[in-house]
Specification:
Blueprint (H helix, E strand, L loop, with lengths): L6 H22 L8 H14 L3 E2 L11 E5 L2 E3 L13 E10 L2 E10 L5 H20 L7 H13 L3 E2 L5 E3 L6 E5 L16 E4 L2 E3 L5 E3 L6 E3 L5 E3 L2 E6 L2 E4 L4 H7 L5
Antiparallel strand pairs: 1-4, 2-4, 3-12, 4-5, 6-10, 7-8, 7-9, 9-14, 10-13, 11-12, 14-15
Helix pairs in contact: 1-2, 1-5, 3-4
This protein binds 2-amino-4-trifluoromethylsulfanyl-butyric acid and cobalt (II) ion.
Length: about 260
């Protein structure tokens, strides 16, 4: 069942989305060689709590962090740890905050120091795939158009499009109906209606689309150990308008000319 949100609820969701965006902006200030992912996790948790939010991932089905940490070949759902970021790494940071009873969800993949050109291009292309997916998310359109736009763009560039994890509806719950795949056919799937709030989150691999889930039951890596990128926005379908509720502007501010 897809819950349609009222305009009042969407205003509350905007606040949660802004808080998650500001949290990623805080974390961005700390991303550098030598910083542990556990440090990033505590920055995020404190920032959320200081601003009246609740870290939604922490304790979710036993997940042990505020942030999902995705270093290099990790696609999704990695744990914060004592691993210190190294020059040339990429690190995806995916997190959700609850504020006023509603969730905001966003992810961003950061280069750490000097990253090889092919991997940097993967980051740019995955961000562009997210933008193309968002452009298809309009009142009256079919949900499948979003995944089709992402898949077509990425497969043309010979990237692997992850199938096992998808975007999703969001609201009082961090994951609501519908699923929002990063692949699919135009003209298929539910019709997008005003009041739907969804997360689009392409997970795109430099190599093949195949994944391996680790022994912890969460940490998901590329089978070929090549890098993977992940960007995510929360957006609301409104009458004649789609409003992207999260923003990368705080990250842009934090990174200055390092923003790609
Ligand atoms: N954006 C992630 C997702 O939609 C957030 C997961 S939090 C976790 O899957 F607790 F499930 F890891
Ligand atoms: Co999500």
């Amino acid at each position: 069942m897809i819950y349609l949100k009222t305009p009042e609820e969407i205003l509350l969701m905007q606040e949660a989305a802004t808080l998650v965006s500001r949290t990623l902006g805080e974390v961005a200030k700390w991303v550098a060689p030598g910083v542990t992912t556990r440090k990033l996790d505590s920055i995020a948790r404190e920032f959320m709590l200081d601003n009246g939010g609740r870290p939604s991932c922490l304790g979710y089905h036993g997940f042990p962090g505020t942030l999902c940490i995705e270093v290099n070949e990790t696609i999704v759902h990695g744990f914060p740890s004592d691993y210190a970021l190294r020059d040339g790494d990429i690190v995806g940071i995916d997190t959700v905050v609850e504020l006023n009873g509603y969730n905001g969800d966003s992810a961003y993949t950061f280069p750490v120091g000097d990253v090889d050109p092919q991997t940097l291009q993967l980051l740019r292309d995955t961000k562009e795939a997210l933008r193309l997916g968002i452009a298809e998310a309009k009142e009256g359109a079919r949900l499948g158009n979003i995944g089709n736009a992402i898949q077509t763009f990425c497969e043309k560039r010979r990237y692997g499009v992850v199938r096992e994890f998808t975007g999703h509806g969001i609201g009082r719950e961090m994951h609501e109906s519908p699923e929002v795949p990063n692949y699919g056919r135009r003209g298929t799937g539910p019709i997008l209606k005003p009041g739907m709030v969804i997360c689009i989150e392409p997970m795109i691999n430099l190599g093949s689309k195949n994944i391996v889930i680790g022994p912890d039951g969460w940490t998901t890596r590329t089978k070929d150990r090549k890098p993977s990128a992940h960007y995510e926005h929360t957006l609301a379908i409104l009458p004649g308008e789609t409003r992207v509720l999260t923003t990368f502007d705080y990250i842009r501010e934090a990174l200055g000319d390092r923003f790609i």
